[in-house]
Amino acid sequence: GAAAVHFQDFNVEVLRCLTVSNVKANLQKHLPETANDVCMPEVRFFAGDWTEVYQLFGCGNDSNLVSDPDFGYYDIILMAETVYSLSSLQSLYELIKK
To answer: By CB count within 10 A, which of 3, 22, 57, 88 is most buried?
Structure first.
């Protein structure tokens, strides 16, 4: 399994009301009962617009950001129902480049 999984949505309500409970249910279902905190993946949730949310991730190319050396970059980015407007594609592209 993954050592870390991060979830992002524009709306904090979606994360609070849907994502967190689904992640908890899936972790309980798929992790052995003997799993301890060492075995648990790091799970984090981020809310915000693509033009600013990278600041919460602790990464990016801006000189005023301090990156966590243990964090690095994402190996895989999965998206669903991501683009509702073509005008938002540039912001998404810029975020992925960071």
So the answer is: 57
Pair of tokens at residue 26: 């899936």
Residues 61 and 39 in one domain: no
Cβ(31)–Cβ(47) below 8 Å? no
Do 53 and 92 lie in one domain? The reply is yes
Nearest-angstrom CA–CA distance, 95 and 25: 29
Q: What is the pTM of this model?
A: 0.71
Averaged over 22-34, what is the pLDDT?
Answer: 83
Structural domain count, the chain: 2
pLDDT at 31: 76
